[in-house]
Design brief:
Radius of gyration: 21 Å
Strand content: under 5%
Number of strands: 0
Helix content: over 70%
Structural class: mainly alpha
């Protein structure tokens, strides 16, 4: 199971890099073509915008798993370990609810827009909203995992983690 999870997140990272490369190539190529040859790539703006949206959400999934998003832990550091654990479980439950709402809203938007073509490329606009479905579902699974991990007592006390980081 661990290999499957690691493979999934490696795939997300690879897709984010591909989105970044596509954006750079399309935008730079379009600039060179416009100023150097008085032409351009018609689909450049639309595809680079789609790549940017996908890259942002894919990166957010990876960072959520790696706990890389900013957080404020001033109050948590002052709580005893039980209070810290309860607070973290509550915050994970709230984030789980938000992720499920995001998933549901993105699912509805994707269903509504599946039959509508994008203005330039003609691709289904459902693909544009599909990344929200992927994000919402992935985030919900990550939050469920964190809730289970916290309930089993496998979390490191934040004050201990801060001391550990200070020594490194």
């Amino acid at each position: 199971m661990s290999k499957l999870v690691e493979g999934y997140f490696a795939l997300l990272k690879l897709l984010a890099v591909i989105c970044l490369v596509v954006m750079v190539v399309l935008v730079f190529g379009n600039v060179v073509l416009r100023y150097g040859f008085n032409g351009g790539i018609t689909v450049s703006e639309e595809l680079s915008r789609w790549a940017f949206v996908w890259m942002t959400f894919l990166g957010a999934i990876v960072l959520l798993r790696e706990r890389g998003h900013m957080g404020v832990d001033i109050l948590l550091k002052k709580l005893p370990e039980t209070g810290e654990r309860i607070s973290l479980i509550i915050s994970q439950l709230l984030m789980l609810a938000c992720s499920l709402l995001f998933f549901w809203g993105s699912w509805q938007q994707m269903q509504i827009n599946l039959s509508f073509p994008s203005p330039v490329t003609g691709l289904s606009m459902g693909w544009f909203y599909g990344v929200g479905v992927l994000f919402g579902l992935s985030a919900a699974v990550i939050h469920l995992y964190e809730i289970i991990r916290l309930a089993r007592g496998k979390a490191i006390h934040l004050s201990d983690a801060s001391k550990l980081e200070a020594h490194l």
